[in-house]
TrEMBL record:
Molecular-function annotations in GO: hydrolase activity; metal ion binding
InterPro entries in alphabetical order: Calcineurin-like_PHP (IPR004843), CNP_phosphodiesterase-III (IPR050884), Metallo-depent_PP-like (IPR029052)
Segments forming domain Calcineurin-like phosphoesterase: 8-190
Gene3D superfamilies linked to this entry: 3.60.21.10
SUPFAM superfamilies listed in its UniProt record: Metallo-dependent phosphatases
Family (UniProt): Belongs to the cyclic nucleotide phosphodiesterase class-III family.
Pfam families: Metallophos
Organism (species): Thalassotalea litorea
Keyword line: Hydrolase, Iron, Metal-binding
Protein name: 3',5'-cyclic-nucleotide phosphodiesterase
Length: 255
């Protein structure tokens, strides 16, 4: 059955601790994640959500369980798909993300739209899309939005030191696929959009973090005085639109 529009959310970079009361640069990241999940829950047109990595900050098993507990506590009712970030353990995510609404599929098809979740985790903080993942991009035959953790274009602040190592190879393949309508990433802790250009024939959509937003003027991690956020997408009549949802520290939308 064809739906009139496809509405979904992307959230990212929760950086959870095993202790739910722990703070990351002054932010209670568990409560921030919870507020984002509640907001997604209350947006009744959202059909599913995609988490694009860096779930954990302290690498503890309990931090992964806390992600699941936040889903239960929030009362969210839509399916959640996920990718690993550079902080994460794929093994732990596969075993500890145990919840009826958490799906481990890396391809999501809704009507004629395909969402392709690519693993960019490497042995370093930087990203690498391996050949078997790049192969998934070949001969894309339906409108496709790619999700990944690492950013495949420079954003001109410190996080570029940990960007996608094989970015040229990635774009060489993507640019040959007429059906790729965009690339969405986490990792950069900012909700920015980079339009299609000579290097990238598809736009890049960065996602704000549920934890902290990076200050691009500082050469290192320094948070901006902003609350958590996420990104919404809507695909309707072969057109993709998107908006950033920012929350104040008390969970109230501010933009």
């Amino acid at each position: 059955m064809k739906v009139s529009s496809i509405v979904f959310a992307q959230f990212s970079d929760s950086h959870l601790f095993g202790d739910k009361s722990s703070s990351h640069f002054g932010q209670n990241v568990y409560q921030n994640l919870l507020e984002v999940l509640v907001h997604i829950r209350d947006e009744q047109n959202i059909q599913f959500a995609i988490f694009t990595g860096d779930l954990t900050q302290d690498h503890s098993d309990q931090s992964y369980r806390n992600f699941v507990e936040a889903m239960t506590e929030s009362g969210i009712q839509v399916p959640i798909y996920w990718l690993a970030g550079n902080h994460d353990s794929l093994e732990k995510m596969n075993t500890l993300l145990d919840h009826p609404l958490i799906h481990h599929d890396k391809t999501v098809n809704v009507d004629d739209l395909q969402l392709l979740l690519l693993n960019s985790k490497s042995d370093s903080p930087a990203g690498l899309v391996k050949p078997e993942e790049l192969q998934k991009l070949a001969n894309v035959s339906t409108p496709t939005l790619i999700f990944m953790h690492h950013h495949p274009l420079p954003v001109n602040y410190f996080i570029d030191r940990h960007g996608l190592e094989n970015r040229q190879e990635f774009w060489q393949i993507v640019n040959q696929q007429e059906n790729v309508i965009g690339v969405a990433c986490g990792h950069i802790h900012r909700g920015l959009t980079i339009a299609a250009s000579g290097e990238n024939k598809a736009p890049l959509y960065g996602c704000p973090a549920t934890s902290i937003q990076f200050d691009p003027a500082y050469d290192g991690v320094r948070p901006l005085p902003q609350g958590p956020g996420y990104r919404q997408f809507c695909y309707r009549n072969n057109t993709l639109t998107t908006q950033i949802i920012s929350l104040a520290y008390d969970g109230v939308r501010v933009s």
